[in-house]
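Regression report. Comparing outputs from two consecutive submissions.

Submission 1:
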Amino acid sequence: MEVGFLGLGIMGKAMSTNLIKSGFKVTVWNRTLSKCNELVALGASIGETPAAVVKKCQITIAMLSDPAAALSVVFDKDGVLEEICGGKGYIDMSTVDPETSTKINGALTAKGASFLEAPVSGSKQPAEAGQLVILAAGDKALYETAIPAFDVMGKKSFFLGEIGNGAKMKLVVNMIMGSMMNAFSEGLVLAERSGLNPSNLLDVLDLGGIANPMFRGKGPAMLKSNHSPAFPLKHQQKDMRLALALGDENAVAMPVAAAANEAFKKARGMGLGDLDFSAVYETVKFHKD
């Protein structure tokens, strides 16, 4: 089975690399085609357009930056919709809102194709290690067909039912993660300003009930203001915004998430959007009353 892969950013590059190294025949596309060269060196083929990739492959996977990019790749000239047809499957692993997934699903199924949304939980390192958590919803038969590829890219995949449920689950997960990162940042700064060694705080947290891989993995680098992007802050803020919109739809009060979103927006305003989402720490560290 030949698999298409659209989008070779931090996540897409790692995910498609793992597919190639596991023996899948992969055809790749990226808006900047030169980003495909490293994958070609590993054995991939290049598709000049999303439509060309879909025409060649039984299943095409997309990993794109936001809802606008996800819609553009499907609906624009030379997009997925031009070549998708019965017998072909399209899997969007981008983090988008449920409405975007629903719109894509409607257009593709109208042409006889099958669609699966499958956003992932995890950032650069889990993507490189094939340890993502895949949150799929939509066409169950396509999900079952894609399991061998999912097993290469992730450590666990979930089938969550109807279209929209994968997007909702991912937004809830990232909303919690973003809120935690803000509280963690405030705690690190509070410890230091109070005369404590923040490295000791990391050790204490790691031995307690709120120990977690995010604090353990990112804390030491944050204390050195090292925010090399594993998950860019601008994407975290986008996910917070989408999660808050989901809260509005369901009349869920989310004051903690709303405050965290404001902190991420402030960080973007400081020019930190392309750094890791841990760079929200800098908004607390350099805050002056």
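Submission 2:
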Amino acid sequence: MAREQTFFPSVGTFGDDVADAMATLLEEIGRTELREDDRVREQSLAGMREWIRQNGRIRRCRTDDRFLLRFLRVKKFSVPRACEMLEKYLTVRQTHPRWFTRLDPDAPELADVLDACCLLPIGRDPTTGRIVILGVVRNFDAQRYNSDMMIRLNMLVAEALLDEEPNQIAGFTHIFDNGSMTMAHVTCWTLDNLAGYLRSVINCVPVRLKENRFVSVPTFAAQISKYCLSFASDKLRSRIHCHSTMEELRAAVHPELLPQEYGGKGPTLKVLNARFREFLASKRKMLLELDSELEIDTKDPRESATHDDGHGGDVVADGAVGSFRQLSID
């Protein structure tokens, strides 16, 4: 697998030795966790492109390697499951345009929440290869913005980072600092938005979410946390870790990853945000073009049926996907 230049290669020194070590780690993850090799990758990409070509509901869709590999990698190169997720992704984008469209990092409101450092990558963990994203809940102005803006911010960050292959391969670690959050951060979520986000977005956006860490969750937020966890699979629950103090978080996270404000050896939040804004500027064209490059006919009656594939999971059963079932290696 060719090395890909990424704006967040790893923590520490960004020299050739670090880049070589990270490239080796990513190649190992791809081979052992995702069952990825040159033959499987090319065969699976060809299968997805043919499925897209034959799918009467899909009007427009990116077919470049980088985009399709998002779905193949998150489904460990099971072509039927990757195709099913792609169709769900296209559908949820059109069902919830207020969350997915016009993801312009230069738009005044999005720029405002970005500069507040509510959600930003802080580096790449050298031991796991994962991109680490820090959410500082108190920095989100819940008096001015509602949960629609919070979800849009999440989608902007996810879409930009998923355009880089290291993030598709190694996955994501999320850290949420809930200290000093207020009731406004809870009440800005409507039940419709919360249920829609948990039921639809999390299951349709191709993110390999490997680890969630929550620190300083206030008592009044515990009930909503239980509600959110009711939508989570057992696997996802096993990847959630709660820390009552910042000291517990520092003991669990690589010290060079945490920003200086958290007692770590990383840059300050201001420096990290400036770096992230530069990265988003390089992805702005891609983000804006998603609106014109992706379209599905949500009113077309030819909806995908599913059935159990004998391995404990649902796969698309009708349409062109059936002919590619032999490509599944999940």
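Expected: both submissions complete independently.
Actual: both completed, but the second showed a warning that disappeared on reload.
Relevant detail on submission 2: Residues 269-293 form the longest helix (25 residues).
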